[in-house]
Amino acid sequence: MRHTNNSHGGMNKLHHNRYSNHFTVHWKWLHRFFQQMGELSIFTFHFFRHLFQRPFEGREFIRQSTVIGLSTLPIVTLTGFIMGLVLTLQTRPVLLDFGAESWTPSMIAISIVREMGPVITALICAGKIGSGIGAELGAMRVTEQIDAMTVSGTHPMKYLVVTRILAVTFVLPILVFYADTVALYGSYLAINLNSQLAPSLFIAQVFEELYFFDILPATIKTIGFGFAIGLISCYKGYYTLNGTEGVGRSANAAVVASSLAIFVLDLMAVKLHDLFHVWNY
To answer: Which of 210, 226, 235, 277 could be joined to 169 by an S-S link, Cβ 3.0–4.6 Å?
Structure first.
């Protein structure tokens, strides 16, 4: 009997310790999450504070925009082309079964312009640009280059952070427009694998159901995607710790956090777009 009571007591203690450990892990995760959100908010405040202060680093902004755009262009081209090609090859047989093959260009255009083009291009840029910015600023932090800039009189927040965030915010919508165009070209080639469709007729069918209010919300949310990628990547890289190991962690964290932010912002944009349509009706 005593042995049974001791066994029950040991099991209860084991369950109590297990629940206590789970609670501690979750509490630490929440504490770290809200701490980083607070630090990111302060970082965002510093960005806007330095954004409107002179001097404006115009040359560095142009240089960063050029580097970011050219380095991302090949992978965006390949991704956009495959996106349009595969989406058309998957969609056309279904529409053919319903006798709506002529709707293929319109449906592909709406799908790409509204959702797939902005989100997929932003995710590609989050991986390419986010990791690059996180690693670059992280390396500058651990090698004390940022501290040296502060001593020499150059404000690192303005020269390193503001220019990169603005560059990503400016370049990403351009890359999305380019990716949409390449995707539509891939869609045109996919349609012509099984039938002959004139380019002028394809373009007419694309813009038959594609309106300005399809393009405007997509453009606005790509600006938000670019700002989120630039802000999060700069934040992760700017506050890198623990030497070269921390550089890798910052680059990885920049990609993961930026990708998550893209999905959250996309969900918010879709809900706001639906509310806007409801108010119009």
So the answer is: 226
Residues 6+ apart with CB under 8 A from 29: none
DSSP string, 73-127: HHHHHHHHHHHHHHHHHHHHHHHHHTT-GGGHHHHHHHHIIIIIHHHHHHHHHII
Do residues 251 and 134 touch, judged by C-beta distance below 8 A?
yes
Q: In the chain, where are the structural domains located?
A: 1-31, 58-280
For residues 71-97, b (16+ Cβ closer than 10 Å) or e, as one string?
A: ebeeebeebbbebbbebbeebbeeeee
Alpha carbons 163 and 60: distance in angstroms, whole number: 6
**Closest Cα to residue 44, out of 189, 172, 195, 232?**
232
d(CA 110, CA 102): 14
Specify the pTM: 0.83
Predicted confidence (pLDDT) per residue in 10-50, tens digit: 555 545 555 556 656 666 767 677 777 888 888 888 888 88
- How far is the C-alpha of 93 from the C-alpha of 36, rounded, in Å? 48
Tokens, residue 198: 């004139």
At 4, give phi and psi (nearest 5°): -65, -45
- Cβ-contact 234, 168 below 8 angstroms: no
